[in-house]
Amino acid sequence: MATLFRNLSLVLTISFLSCHYLSVTSLASSDGFVRCLLQKIPGELVLTPSSSSFADVLVSSIRNPMFFNNATARPLCIVTPVDASHVQAAVLCGRAEGVRLRARSGGHDYEGLSYRSARRGEVFAVVDLGARLRAVSVSGGGEATAWVESGASLGELYYTVAKSNPGLAFPAGVCPTIGVGGHLSGGGISMMSRKYGLAADNILDAKLVNANGELVDRAAMGEDLFWAIRGGGGESFGIVVSWKVRLVQVPTTVTVFVVGRNVDQGAADVVARWQDVAPSLPPELTIRVIVRGQRATFQSLYLGSCADLVPTMSSMFPELGMTSADCREMSWLQSAALIQFWNPSTPVEALLNRRTSLSTFTKAKSDYVRRAIPSDVWKNILPWFTMNGSGQMLLEPMGGFVGGVPAAATPYPHRSGVLYNIQYIAYWSGDGTAANRWISGLYAFMEPYVSSDPREAYVNFRDLDIGENAVAPNDVSTFESGKVWGEKYFAGNFERLAAVKAAMDPTDYFRNEQSIPPFVGPKQVRKA
Predict the structure, then answer these.
(1) What positions does the domain FAD-binding PCMH-type occupy (predicted)?
(2) Whole-model pTM above 0.90?
(3) Which of 94, 145, 438, 440 counts the most CB atoms within 10 A of its CB?
């Protein structure tokens, strides 16, 4: 950190020169960008709106039809790189021709910012990593590791690792179609976070194309930038093309259970008790809760056998009433498929399916809870799920390994003292008025019971409602506008992220509506 601030005088100089460079080149035509690309990479990797496959590739990773309509700002073109040199070419051409880039790995950004702009008139191109940059290479010698390209899905990573060695796994999210690039750069909560930490806690190295078009690894990028991309959002600092991750040991047999409780079966009391129990359970045991309709569903992964799990549940969480009849024993890879699809006959190969659907509109928001919500309050929360337009609430416990990591160790700050994360999701087809009213209303109702100053949020559950960047006349996102939403995602780590941004991308080339803004100001200089 000291090194970063000692170099700020140099950063100020670079910032001035780079701003001049971008302001001159931004006058170039968008046609110049495409011509530049075609001089550097094979033509079949550059898709313009006139290309026959442009629409199919664009829609291939769009998860929300809200962001695929006539009002959606479309990219100038889509670049489908086969290797890192193609990403470098896209950055160099973009800088030279004044065209910004948005990188997409799996398309799960809840606001669609990896493939669309919420700003009218913005000229941008999409670098679609998920089209061709999806290789996974496992190394089992010594510490088990894997190099995984950013376009790979979590399902592809899980499948390749487990087929290489059934005793290995990687702690990342439940949904198999999520792209590795976005998930890791935002932190990555999982059913094994309490045992092994976030996905970002298990990143050992990365290869990133920076704002100068250089391909750098951990040694070349430096520890400040390496810190920033492990939870601070990789889209702000460059395009990460691949990651080296630490794989974790899992037993031959793991156990999954699902137990539901309706309101008339005391769901409110059981959820209230879960808040105290779940963060303090043995780290091998994770129980998350899905609230929908008038039912709370308790879904669990235990890294061990049913015979060992039942006594633990009986002694620590008897209120749930879980028994051996609820157990399903299987391999870890099978558990990844079962928890997602909840169909015992679904083969593990289903984890490789990247197909998406545009049938359902969605809106998501998030919170963190540091003090248990009383049972009486839960009895007032559950009726929200009888309302017109109601969706669901997902509660994911913290504690264990993830809670023991210092808040400043990575940009993800929601560590010690956090009981659980809340994800609110609204679904609709057709008119979304009721669903949007429901999620906004529930989010407002929950304010007294969740974290405050700031009201914390999870960057991987992106929500533009909590704030967007303003762009200053010098064409750089302002620090003050970013601080509004940034401290909710990153708390005290936001300023350091903005300092890294200033050092690595002072002209704000890599940006979107919630990218980290560069911060070079008197307050920062005084720290030198």
Answers:
(1) 71-250
(2) yes
(3) 94
